[in-house]
Amino acid sequence: MGFIADVLKSCFSRLKVADLEQLIRQWGYLNNDELSQLDFSKSKLCVFRDVLSFCEDKKRHKEALRKVNDLDLMCTVKNSTKKKWTMYRLQDKKSGSKENWFSDPEKFKKKLQQQVDLYFDSAASVSVTLQDGALWCRLYLPSGNHFMTANAVYLIHYPNSNCFAISAFKVSVQNFLFQCLSNLFGYHTLTSMNLSGLQYKSLFQLAFNKLGETSFGKLSDVQSLPFISRHKRKAEEIEREPNLRSEDVAMKRYRSLSLEAAFGEYQQPVLESLRFKVEAKFMGKKNIENFQDNGEPFRCCVKFEGPSVLDGVRNLASCGLANEPLPKHLLRVNSLGTNNFVLKSKEKS
Question: pTM (2 decimals)?
Answer without folding.
Answer: 0.84
